Amino acid sequence: SSEAEFYNQKCKDALKAHNAVLIAHYYTDPAIQKLAEETGGFVGDSLEMAKFGAAHEASTLVVAGVKFMGETSKMLSPEKKVIMPTLEATCSLDLGCPADEFKSFIEQHPDRTVVVYANTSAEVKALADWVITSSIAVDVVKHLDAQGEKILWAPDRHLGGYIQKQTGADMVLWQGHCIVHDEFKYQALEKAIKLYPEAAVLVHPESPEAVIALADHVGSTSQLIKAAQTVENQQVIVATDKGIFHKMQQAAPEKELIIAPTAGEGATCRSCAHCPWMKMNDLILLSEVFDKQDNEIIVEPELIEKALKPLTRMVNFQS
Ligand code: 13P
Ligand code: SF4
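# iron/sulfur cluster complex -> structure
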């Protein structure tokens, strides 16, 4: 529409005028992903976003996603200005793991290596030995297990259970969950598979164990896009946020993409395969991002100092 075009142009002008680069997650609105593509910005999974921001020469990073992504970018590049369309965009995993409670959990397991998901606050990261994302989770824990280390994992219980199963590592798990992926249901997915017997099934590891068990491929958002591209199947059932379809369809234009069912028989979905916090990012907020004072990510220097150790391990890890 002409309104969308107006805001698209407004965003482009503002990014240019402020020497800023836009870094977006796959779950954001396609209009935002398109803007990132058109302006030399980036769309990727959470690890790639962190790496791109750290390596880019722009003095300002505009991060479209959820707050932990902005915080990670800031901690990896404290000298850069990091702003977000809204600071209200949180994540149920971050909300479900308050730093003070997590600190007590660590104190109950002093002999364990503390590995946390990137989907956590700066405070939680500052308490960790390692930060990881789903794209390297299994490989990092394999590496730690091979050194005889016992793991304390937080916050996603499904991803933690998946890592444990894949690696056989000794892990204790925090019991958090993602409200979006937790809604993918085994029985409904089984029915969908019967309906599309030729389809490949791609699942993000924040989904429940029984749903993961039905998958042909499990991985981060980027890994799922790669899988959609490389599988021979013409149809692909996808259990993750449907925002991913913008890039997945670009990568696999001839494939039919089908969203995995959320909620069971008779029940209505709450998030309906779209993260309510990712959804808060829109072109209007983005076009105003440089005019406001209250959307800059600020992280205390002591926190940055502590969190940089596990974050640097994350960005430097070679699978
Ligand atoms: P990815 O690292 O796979 O992009 O996942 C981030 C996320 O928030 C998934 O819900
Ligand atoms: Fe967090 Fe889930 Fe949203 Fe990802 S989809 S940002 S894990 S609430």
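# post-check
Residues 66, 91-93, 119, 178-180, 206, 241, 275, 277-278 surround iron/sulfur cluster (ligand 2) (CB under 6 Å).
The mean pLDDT is 97.
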